Amino acid sequence: MDSIAIHGLRKSFRKDLPPAVDLREDVSISKGELFGIIGPDGAGKTTLFRMLATLISPDAGSAVLEGLDIVRDYRKIRTLIGYMPGRFSLYPDLTVRENLEFFASVFGKDVGSNYALIGNIYCRLKPFEDRKAGNLSGGMKQKLALCCSLIHSPAVLFLDEPTTGVDPSSRRELWENLAQLKASGMTIVVSTAYMDEADRCDRVAMMKAGRFLTVDSPAAIVRSFDRPLLAVRSDDMFRLLHDLRAMEEVEKCYTFGDTHHVTLKPGADADAAAIASRLEPNHSGLEAGPVQATLEDCYMNLEEK
């Protein structure tokens, strides 16, 4: 059964600019699914979240959340969702405990009635519950915001880039918490600019310029990569990038960690050995070989189609 059904949502903020969101296809998110929206800054992720969370109205299209229309039934929807925006949005002058109690009271709840849902998260905040929220570290602010989003036991949880600016340990803990919430049957929609986090989702939508490039499981997206892919490095990586991009057989070349990933054109009569032999006269420490595509490679491939 669908928890969210999106039908061609569209939103523009200025007539002289392309729409921030322009979803021309229907997309459904199942109950209990952990659904990721992956894309860089400016892709339209936050605008889409704000429409689904009933904070702004679409210009065209529609969406249904838990059987309710996001425009007509916005008041009811707001009682069913938890929303954690990308920027810290709690009250910095209230303590940790006061923030939690306030957000519970907004929904007519008390902290004790739903404490089991946040207990494994709040236990890390407990020693600091008398500290003002504005004085918390980035990871602790993230945990408090998540607790406040969950304290009323929402059916659907929206997390807009929740791991931006937090340490690796807090990132890992967040995804462990999301896995536990998913196991309880909660529908979770999370956006991120980190491609490595997409592997933790049941399905992901890769987004660019307001549109979904593809929607599928991470494994299926990787399997769909349809180009020969090489990893190349040398002692002069800047010059290597220029030389690779100048080759006729190369469709795309971009930096990937300590290597350059090279996508060859369909039907190109070249392989890693041939590419290396042409580069060796001008490069020392040259290494080249085929590699398995990652989600980031898939995104780079899809955005050009």
Helices and strands, in N-to-C order?
A: EEEEHEEHEHHHEHEEEHEHEEHEH
CATH level 4 superfamily of the largest domain: P-loop containing nucleotide triphosphate hydrolases
Count of discrete domains:
2
Estimate percent helicity.
25-40%
Structural class: alpha/beta
Q: Specify the CATH architecture of the largest domain.
A: 3-Layer(aba) Sandwich
Q: Spatial order of the strands in the main sheet?
A: 7-8-9-4-10-11
Quickly count the helices: 10
How much beta, percentage-wise?
25-35%
Account of the protein in words:
38% of the residues are buried. The model has no long low-confidence stretch (mean pLDDT 92). A six-stranded mixed β-sheet has the order 7-8-9-4-10-11, with helices on both faces. Strands 1, 2, 3, 5 and 6 form a five-stranded antiparallel β-sheet that branches. The chain has ten helices and 15 strands. It folds into two domains: 2-222, Rossmann fold (3-Layer(aba) Sandwich); 225-302, Alpha-Beta Plaits (2-Layer Sandwich), CATH 3.30.70.2070. With 305 residues, it is an alpha/beta fold.
Short description:
This protein has 305 residues and is of the alpha/beta class. It has helices spanning 45-52, 74-78, 96-106, 115-122, 138-150, 168-183, 218-223, 237-245, 272-279, 295-302, and strands spanning 2-11, 21-22, 26-30, 34-38, 60-65, 68-69, 81-84, 156-160, 187-192, 203-208, 211-216, 229-233, 250-256, 259-264, 287-290.
